[in-house]
Every structure is written in structure tokens, then in C-alpha cells.
Design a protein that fits this description.
Radius of gyration: 14 Å
Number of domains: 1
Helix content: 55-70%
Structural class: mainly alpha
Oligomer: single chain
Number of strands: 0
Order of helices and strands: HHH
Length: 46
């Protein structure tokens, strides 16, 4: 997976950090993560 992420980042002319950040944003939008966020009021974290 590491090689795949590096290759995609290179093709997109983005840093690995940017690609991972985008992936995390999408992951956090999934229903399972949203349930946890709401249940534990994590959206109120500073």
C-alpha cells in the first residue's frame, strides 16, 4: 500500500501528507465514524 500511495501522490503532484489528509477526511465522514463522533461529542473538541 505504501508504494501505491506514493505513486498516486506523485501522479497527482501532491504530497503524501495531502493524500493521507484527504483520505482521513473521507474516512471521518463515514457513518460509523460519525456515530462515534456524535456519541462522544467529539465534534466539540478544540
Amino acid at each position: 500500500m505504501d508504494k501505491l500511495v506514493k505513486t498516486i501522490a506523485t501522479i497527482r503532484e501532491e504530497s503524501i501528507s495531502a493524500v493521507v489528509g484527504e483520505a482521513l477526511e473521507l474516512w471521518l465522514q463515514q457513518p460509523r465514524q460519525q456515530e462515534i463522533i456524535e456519541k462522544h461529542r467529539l465534534d466539540e473538541l478544540d
